[in-house]
Amino acid sequence: MSDINWSSLPFGYFKTDYNVRCYYRNGKWGELEVSQSEEITMHMAATCLHYGQEAFEGLKAFRGEDGKIRMFRPDENAKRLMRSADGIMMAPVPEDLFVEACAKVVKLNERFVPPAESGASLYLRPLLIGTGAQVGVKPADEYLFMVFAGPVGPYFKEGFNPVKFQIVKDADRAAPHGTGTIKVGGNYAASLQSGFRAHAEGYANCIYLDPSTHSFIDEVGAANFFGIKNNTYITPSSSSILPSITNLSLRTLAEDLGLKVEQRPVAIEELKEFEEVAACGTAAVISPIGQIVDRETGKEYNFGTEAGPTSTKLYNLLRGIQLGTEPDTHNWNYIVE
Ligand SMILES: *Cc1c(COP(=O)(O)O)cnc(C)c1O
User: Fold this and answer.
1) Which atom belonging to ligand 1 lies closest to the Cα atom of 281?
2) N or C: fewer beta carbons within 10 Å in the chain?
3) Which atom of ligand 1 lies at the shortest distance from residue 80's CA?
4) 2 CA → ligand 1 middle, Å
5) Catalytic residues, which ones?
6) Cα-Cα-Cα-Cα dihedral of 25, 92, 284, 202, to 10°?
7) Whose CA is nearest to atom 10 of ligand 1?
8) Residues with Cβ within 6 A of ligand 1?
C-alpha cells in the first residue's frame, strides 16, 4: 500500500479488500461470512428502509510503533450496539460475535492499517439492519450485521486547534425521551439540516440542547461535551445524550490525573465559568472548542485560540494508550493477532 498518502486521507469511504457479514434468520445468528462485495441485496420491504431499524457503531484500529495492531475498547461498542438494538427492537448481536467480526475485518484488511507514524488509523463501521419484509409497523424477523473498514487520515491535520460551534434552539437531534441515547441512523437524519446550516454559517457544527427545556447542553454535533473548571472534568447527563466511549474513557483518565469528575446537567449560563471546553468522540478523541455562539441571542463565549492544558494532557494520554506508547493500565486495547 505504498501508493496511499496516509496522512492526507480524509474521513470518508475507502474501498478495502473485505467486509464480514452475519445473518439472523429463524431466531438465530448464522456463521460469520467474508465478502469482497461492496453491495448488499435486500427485500424492498425491509424494515431498515421504511421504519428506521438501523443502528451502527464506529471504532478504530491503530498500528503501534511496536508493530502491534490495537482496537480500542471494542467490547464497549458491542454493549452499546446491544442497547441500540434493544431500543428499536432489533435482534441483539452477542458481544463475542461483534468483537470477532471487528478483529476479522482488521486482520483481513491488514494492508490498509496505516503505519504508526502517519497519525492515520483504520476506521471500523459495524452496522445492524432489519432486512425482513414488513409493511405493517412491526420489527423485522431477519437482520443483517456487518462490519466494513477503511483507512482515515489524522483528524487534526493543522494541529490540535480550537474550533467554533453554534448553540441552536430551533432544532433537536432527538426527542426528550426518544432515541437520543442509542446510536441509530434516525438521529443523524434528524441532525442533517441543522448541521448543514451551522457549516454554511461558518461553524464546525451545532450544539444541541436538552430538547424539553432548551437550557442545558446535550451534545456537540455527533460528539459529547465536556468542560474543565476548578480541577474538575464536567460532562452533561441527560435522557437524550448518546453515551460516548471516548467520554467514558476520558472520565477515567481525568480521575487518574487527579481531577474530580462530575456528570450532571450543564446549563448554558455555566459556559462562562469554564476554563476549557471541548467535544469528544472516536473521530477526533478531543476537539478543543475556541468559541460558542448562541444563534438565537448572538451571545458569545470565548475560550481562547489554543487548546487548554488539561484537554491537551487528556488527548496525549488517550492517544498514547491507543498507539501503545502509554501503559494500558485499564486494559482497554484489544490486540489483533
Ligand atoms: C457516536 C457518537 C458519539 C461519540 O461516541 P464515541 O463512542 O466516543 O465515538 C457522541 N455522540 C453521538 C450522537 C454519537 O452518535
Assistant:
1) 8
2) C
3) 7
4) 32
5) 183
6) 80
7) 223
8) 58, 183, 219, 222-224, 242, 244-247, 281-282
85: left (phi over 0), alpha (psi -120 to 50) or beta: alpha
Within 10 angstroms of residue 240's Cβ, the number of other Cβ atoms is: 23
Helix or strand or coil: residue 104? helix
My answer on whether 200 and 305 are in the same domain is: yes
Within-domain flag for 81: yes
Residue 268, phi-psi category: left (phi > 0), alpha (psi -120 to 50), beta (remainder): alpha
Same domain, 226 and 308: yes
CA distance readout (Å), 99 to 9, 23, 283? 26, 16, 20
Q: Which of 126, 152, 178 is the last residue of a domain?
A: 152
Q: Are 135 and 40 part of one and the same domain? A: yes
- Could you tell me which residues are beta bridge partners of residue 50? none
Provide the whole-model pTM. Answer: 0.97
pLDDT in tens, 34-66: 999 999 999 999 999 999 999 999 999 999 999
Cα 250 to ligand 1 centre (Å): 13
* 85-134 pLDDT, tens digit each: 999 999 999 999 999 999 999 999 999 999 999 999 999 999 999 999 99
Q: For residues 32 and 123, state if they share a domain.
A: yes
